[in-house]
Structure to design on (474 residues):
């Protein structure tokens, strides 16, 4: 199932009973009502920021002093060219989000590992479960999730669910009625039907693309995986499946434990309040969180009309890169400033490698992304296309220590029109884990060389040109 509703009318024809079929009329109406927003000027972002002398690091005992913050961050790197305290202070100035210490991170590659971990966490719930997802599908995985949530609600655990109206448009209303009838509190984000929120602005183009699960305020999950059969499948090369006729999905999620969980809880509650006037059932949404690990993270979220936090964090990390930029992303339709950040990095000798899909659930987006290849390749950026799986991951690791996992695609839709969330980790050990995952993607990809790219047929070039005309909405 494609990631955003504007992609559905142009998607590849692939067998799946969960594919959404948005009428073209709906798309045209949406585009006609959309005011053109624009991304901020970030060409000289690092020079324009006025950071504090050291970044803020929050712990279970309160904020660390500037001296302790700098010492802790400096200890994170050994024999590195990176000035981590300076980079962290710049990023805080750009995003407004502090660092949070004392966390445990578990990287979850692909759907099977993610679904197993999330289901296991929900089964342990004693107080509440908060789920925010773009797609909640009515299929075997969706039903399994729904059954478990209903069971927990009947056990006295308060379950609260936010689903995106467009993302879940293919799910029958009776599916959500069943949840409500069981006592689960359910919110439909920005309903497609404007009469469902009479008197409120109708924001069809602004979608909730976040994926957040919080259990008892102590365990959080985020990343790219939706609650459907497609996303719960594993990539062909990771699952070692012998069924070559079925392409699995390559995706990434992350499990978070520790003080940073409270940030995901706040984001869920803010979204809830923005969509519903009545209060959530009273529960212990913010228990005291002790350190459970040694990972320092930053939770950043963006929304339409906001301060473009995720976009700024990505561009700043690219601009500040000293050795490498390694990105895996499913939908790549960025603005010129991000292209410049990547090409400038390659020109100054940074190892820039990008993994994009060879097979996509959104062919229009894939062709639009390929329209940037010529410029990227000419600058020395190396591009690889993942084979034998539908790529849906949104991850990056820069200089081996700055890593991010989240819901944000590197496209205008994520940057301008969607609500998104990403976790950033500043840690070499976790960076090594991310590098290992990236290298496995590389092993299962084919490099697009400048010579090979120059030989592509005219029909491909025409598709790239056509798709590029829609870049603002993709």
């Amino acid at each position: 199932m494609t990631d955003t509703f504007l992609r559905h009318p142009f998607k590849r024809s692939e067998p799946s009973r969960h594919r959404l079929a948005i009428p073209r009329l709906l798309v045209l109406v949406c585009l006609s009502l959309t005011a053109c927003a624009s991304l901020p000027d970030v060409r000289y972002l690092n020079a324009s920021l006025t950071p504090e002398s050291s970044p803020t690091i929050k712990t279970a005992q309160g904020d660390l002093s500037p001296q302790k913050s700098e010492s802790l961050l400096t200890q994170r790197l050994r024999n590195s060219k990176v000035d981590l305290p300076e980079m962290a202070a710049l990023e805080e100035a750009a995003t407004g989000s502090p660092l949070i210490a004392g966390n445990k991170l578990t990287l979850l590659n692909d759907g099977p590992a993610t679904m197993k971990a999330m289901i296991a966490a929900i089964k342990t719930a004693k107080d509440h479960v908060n789920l925010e997802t773009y797609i909640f599908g009515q299929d075997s995985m969706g039903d399994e999730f729904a059954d478990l949530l209903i069971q927990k609600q009947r056990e006295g655990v308060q379950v609260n669910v936010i689903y995106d109206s467009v993302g879940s448009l293919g799910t029958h209303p009776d599916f959500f009625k069943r949840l409500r009838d069981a006592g689960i509190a359910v919110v439909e984000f920005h309903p497609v039907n404007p009469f469902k929120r009479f008197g409120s602005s109708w924001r069809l183009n602004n979608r909730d693309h976040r994926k957040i699960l919080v259990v008892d305020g102590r365990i959080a999950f985020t990343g790219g995986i939706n609650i459907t059969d497609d996303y719960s499948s594993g990539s062909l090369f990771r699952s070692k499946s012998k069924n070559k006729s079925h392409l699995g999905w390559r995706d990434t999620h992350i499990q978070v434990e520790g003080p940073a969980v409270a940030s995901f809880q706040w984001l869920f509650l803010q979204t809830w309040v923005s969509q519903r006037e009545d209060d959530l059932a009273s529960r212990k949404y913010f228990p005291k969180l002790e350190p459970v690990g040694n990972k320092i993270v930053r939770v950043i979220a963006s929304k339409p009309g906001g301060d473009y936090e995720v976009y700024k964090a990505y561009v700043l990390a690219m601009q500040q890169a000293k050795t490498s930029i390694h990105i895996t992303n499913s939908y790549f339709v960025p603005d010129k400033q991000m292209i410049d950040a990547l090409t400038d990095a390659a020109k100054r000798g940074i190892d820039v490698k990008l993994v994009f899909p060879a097979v996509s659930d959104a062919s229009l987006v894939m062709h639009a992304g390929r329209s940037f290849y010529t410029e990227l390749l000419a600058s020395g950026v190396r591009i690889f296309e993942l084979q034998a799986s539908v790529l849906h991951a949104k991850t990056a690791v820069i200089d081996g220590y700055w890593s991010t996992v989240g819901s944000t695609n590197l496209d205008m839709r994520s940057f301008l029109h969607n609500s998104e969330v990403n976790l950033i980790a500043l840690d070499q050990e976790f960076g090594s884990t991310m590098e290992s995952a990236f290298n496995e993607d590389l092993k299962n990809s084919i490099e697009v060389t400048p010579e090979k790219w120059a030989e592509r047929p005219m029909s491909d070039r025409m598709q790239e040109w056509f798709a590029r005309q829609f870049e603002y909405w993709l």
